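anyone seen this seq b4? input:
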Amino acid sequence: MAVEEREPTDWVEVGRLASALQRELPIDSMPDAVHRYLDDADIRSRKSAYAAYQRQEMRRYVDFGEYDDGIPVPWWVCALFLLAGAAIIKWLLL
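predicted toks r here
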């Protein structure tokens, strides 16, 4: 992140470093958020809001070991989908 936060940002170097680091990390040893950060240097170079968000997420992961891999889904939403799926299958079989 230090190379990325230098002004002016050398995005070619950021991409090279991210690719090198990604090759060294086993795919299942890090959360998806880390791999997204390493993959998305090209997007961060074009979208400053997205870049700020990803850097904030990586700082939180590095400092505290916390990361957000999505939006939590309440149990009742899962139950609703299961019920709807069962109703559709029953309707198709009739």
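Residues 75-93 form the longest helix (19 residues). The mean pLDDT is 83. kinda curious what u guys think
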